[in-house]
Amino acid sequence: MFQLIEIQHDALVEVFNVGVGRAAAALSSMVNEEIILSVPDVYFLSIQDATTALNGGREAPKVCGVSQRFAGAFNTNVTLMFPEDKSLELVRLMVGESIPLEQLTEMEHEALSEIGNILLNSCMGTMADILNSEMHGSLPEYQVGTPEEILGISGNNISDLVLILRINFILEKLKLQGYVAFVMDAAAMEDICRHINDYLASFAHND
Amino acid sequence: MTEVKTILVVDDSKVSRMMIRAFILDKHPDWIIEDAATGEIALEKIRTIIPDLISVDVNMPGMGGLAAAEQLRAECPQAYISLLTANIQESTRRKAQELNVGFLEKPITKQRIEQMISILENN
């Protein structure tokens, strides 16, 4: 299994930390509420092990997934997943009381895609800036299913690795827990390693 | 009392278009708000309206927001144009500068929309 040395792992966690922090700030201003973030847990798994881990040993829960393909510093298919039963409340927090419930239900998927788009772009954009690179994202795709169904979407190979970034983003009112999964092939893993090494080298001489 | 202004909102997200519209109308119920789900539709629309301000999302199907902003800039020299986007990267901010258009980060909030339209209120 793919492994980073400790300093690379630390740097990667830090880069994700900043990215997720920025995404949380975006989410917080969307829902007008403080977001409590856990320290992200970053680990590499096969797609199969990743889905088992995401199921948490229970029967596979239905989740909402918003996926975007990013190309640039490294190529990856990124998916944000959160529990399906909280999705409408999340949309309600986002749009406030200005839109009636019937219209809200009608546009739930579209609104969740937009939430995913904002969070994933905040995260990836911040990472690209830190790594002194660029990321180009595709349009968001929304789907509902088990984590396995969502990660098994076309374009992902069973041999690909998944970098799972497990963050609890807790909204006081919703108790919402989300995950971000980055599916990458071996070439993308090498790219991310190279960027992390450059990033480490960029401040090494300042010590 | 400001005069009636016309605003063109270009965003493929329906909920984003609705939120921008709601926040502007909250403050200026008489302003005219047109919207377009793609850059192509926006370029059609400006044949019949003269917007004072155009907000442009970046990540959209079709030609995309950056190409749209470039053409809108050329076609509507009188309009204030601002990107309003989740793509917060330094490279996108730089492109906005090169195109001579503003840059605002998503998510859409009341404060950000008020900031965007304040340029019209002061003129």
Specify the helix fraction band of chain B: 40-55%
Strand neighbour order, sheet with most strands of chain B: 2-1-3-4-5
From the N-terminal CA to the C-terminal CA of chain A, the straight-line distance is 32 Å
* Second rung of CATH, namely the architecture of chain B: 3-Layer(aba) Sandwich
Main sheet specs of chain B: 5 strands, parallel
Q: Pair with the most extensive interface?
A: A-B, 27 and 23 residues
N/C terminus separation of chain B:
11 Å
- In the CATH hierarchy, the third-tier topology of chain B is known as Rossmann fold
- The share of residues in helices of chain A is 40-55%
Q: CATH superfamily membership of chain B, which one?
A: Response regulator
Computed CA radius of gyration of chain A, to the nearest angstrom: 17 Å
Number of helices of chain A: 7
What is the structure about, briefly put?
Chain A has 207 residues and is α+β, with helices and mostly antiparallel strands. Helices cover 47% and strands 25% of the residues of chain A. The model of chain A has no long low-confidence stretch (mean pLDDT 81).
Question: Explain this structure to me?
Answer:
The complex is a heterodimer of chains A (207) and B (123). Chain A is an alpha+beta fold and 207 residues long. Chain A has one domain (6-206): 3-Layer(aba) Sandwich (Chemotaxis protein chec). In chain A, 47% of the residues lie in helices and 25% in strands. Chain A is built from 7 helices and 9 strands. Chain A has helices at residues 6-31, 47-55, 87-95, 101-106, 108-130, 147-151, 186-204, and strands at residues 35-37, 41-46, 63-72, 76-83, 135-137, 141-145, 161-167, 169-171, 178-184. In chain A, helix 1 crosses helix 7 (186-204). Chain B is of the alpha/beta class and 123 residues long. Chain B has one domain (6-121): Rossmann fold (3-Layer(aba) Sandwich), CATH 3.40.50. Chain B contains 5 helices and 5 strands. Chain B has helices spanning 14-27, 39-45, 65-75, 90-99, 110-121; strands at 6-10, 32-36, 53-56, 80-85, 102-105. Chain B has a 5-stranded parallel β-sheet with strand order 2-1-3-4-5, sandwiched between helices. Chain A binds chain B through residues 22, 26-27, 29-30, 91, 94-95, 98-99, 107, 110-111, 113-114, 117-118, 121-122, 125-126, 128-129, 134-135, 137, 139, and chain B through 12-16, 18-19, 22, 59-61, 85-92, 105-107, 109.
